Amino acid sequence: MPSEPPSVIHGILAPHMVPLDSAGEINEAELRRYIDWLIEKGVHGLYPNGSTGEFTRFTVEERRQIIRIVCDQAAGRVPVIAGAAEANVRETLAACEAYREYGARAVAIVSPFYYKLSPESVYAYFREIATNSPIDVTLYNIPMFASPIDLPTICRLAEFDRIIGIKDSSGDLAGMTRMIEAVRPTRPEFVFMTGWDAVLVPMLLAGCQGGTHATSCVAPELTQAVYDLTMAGRIDDALRLQRQVIALFDTMFTAGDFPEGVRLAANLRGFDFGIGRQPLTERQRATLAAATEQLDRLLSSILAELSAA
């Protein structure tokens, strides 16, 4: 069975969204209320400025504002792993410096996007960051959106002390197993986090220290329970709840283009996330509206089952 990791970064980290007000600006009061709620529900950490957090839809200044607010509101209760991906190395390092000053525990950095890079270029990019960053770095592998970080490159990057872990959103269980087997003998403290909701239990059993999932943003009680049950060796119970994670995951992702379904589900938990910055057609709005009742029923069923357990 997996053992409790030595690192402070472990368990369920919420890659949360950012509420917007009626003018489409960051709703600071609602964001602070949401951060308190996530922490009260038991998440082990926060992961702002990630894919679920729509980081590309905010300006550089707004991304700084988000991290400042989240670190201030968390106030050391849980670690903040701040998404620091910018358009180039210089801007990324500037973000690293700012987020260290705000109090983030580490930063998460995705491979450069838009340009399709070779493994050697991906290595060179992260080597430059690892050499110059004033804060610990976690790699973020999400090949559906950015150049992949392959296993040989991960092994090379693990030689840098400043790089302390990876979040892998490929969902590749065999790939994660190979990664852990290759890196852990020389870096036993290296953090492996899964970013694919549907395989949380198998990834924990393979040796991951936790997960960073969109479902944690709307049902942190559920992913927390899956983590606790798995770590306690209650695998049958964990797998039963894993099926609920998959149902919620699938329903949110079919409600609209990611992450509109997450926004809808978070609103059903009692928050006002406003209207996203990506324009929607009338057909898309109708699809989201039609999914509201289904999501509401599913969330009610999940929460009732957790309360009865």
Count of alpha/pi helices: 11
In CATH's first tier, which class applies?
Answer: Alpha Beta
Percentage of residues in strands: 5-15%
Uncertain segments: 1-6
Query: What's the arrangement of strands in the largest beta sheet?
Result: 2-1-8-7-6-5-4-3
Number of strands: 8
Bulk shape:
globular
In terms of quaternary structure, the protein is: single chain
CATH homology-level superfamily: Aldolase class I
Query: What does the main sheet amount to?
Result: 8 strands, parallel
CATH architecture: Alpha-Beta Barrel
Distance between the termini: 23 Å
Following the backbone from N to C, one meets helices and strands in this order, namely EHEHEHEHEHEHEHEHHHH
What is the fold named in CATH at topology level?
TIM Barrel
Helix content: 40-55%
**Structural classification:** alpha/beta
